[in-house]
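Figure 2 data, in text form.
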Amino acid sequence: MTTFDDRENAFENKFARDEEFQFKVTARRNKLVGLWAAEKMGLTPEEADAYAKSVVQADFEEAGDEDVIRKLLGDITSAGVETDDAAIRAALDAKLVEARRQFIEEA
C-alpha cells in the first residue's frame, strides 16, 4: 500500500502547488491590469499602486473575473475614459500572459 499512498500524496502535493501558482498568477494579473487602468485614468504612481491593490482585493468579492471587470469598467468610465467590456477583457487576457511570463522568468 505504500506505493499507492506515496502516489496519492504526490498527486495531492502537485494539485496544491498548481492551485497556489494559479492564485499567484491571477493576483499578479489583477495588479498588472490595475496599473494599466490607472495609466488610462491618469493616476500618479502612488495612486496607481494603491489602485492596483484595490483591483486585487476586488477579485475576492465573487468567483470568476466579473467582479474585477465590473470594478475596472466602473472606475475607468467614471474617470471619463471611453472603454468597454471587450477592451477590459482583452487587457485581462494580455496581462494574464504577462503575469505567467513573469513567474516563469522568476523561477
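Caption note: The radius of gyration is 17 Å.
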